[in-house]
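The methods section describes the discrete structure representation at length, but only in general terms. The central task, working out the structure tokens from the amino acid sequence alone, is never made concrete. Nothing conveys this as quickly as seeing an actual entry. For illustration, here is how one protein appears when written out as sequence plus structure tokens:
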Amino acid sequence: MACVKFSFFLFLSSLFLHASIAEIICEDLPKDVCAFSISSSGKRCLLETAVEKDGNVEYQCRTSEVVVERMAEYIETDECVRACGVDRNSIGISSDSLLEPQFTAKLCAPACYQKCPNIVDLYFNLAAGEGVFLPDLCYAQRTNPRRTMFELLSSGAAAGPVTSEPESLVVEAPASSPL
């Protein structure tokens, strides 16, 4: 009888433990916190639109295939959203905003660049996908914002590698700082 009671106790304990652990599942997030969130599996959440049968457009939070390496279970703070100039209603993940001087200025400002590692990591990787090194872009933005946009537009990301040394193509994202 004691064995049955102990087994029942373990079963109930496991249920309570599972219920108390809050997992972040992108599909369960509300629209207003979806963008710039990271699921428990370490994948980025993104906001998408879907057209219903009646023609109405509905916003849905989905799990992307983009894996964040040093973060999981994270919902971006409103402070970082404001400091970095991002929009929680952004659909998908795109590097287009890097072409906007006002956005780049906010992204590269200390309030964002030094205090919002999730957003900086996202745009670091988006910039790298365009053949641009974000720290260089931020330095150029501080010293000559007009030239920065010209260089980004004419970066020739598809032109191929600049050097033949493979280790120079691997770059580290800025280190995460505790929030």
About this structure: The longest helix spans residues 2-20. The beta strands are 37-38, 43-51, 57-67, 74-75. The chain has a mean pLDDT of 79.
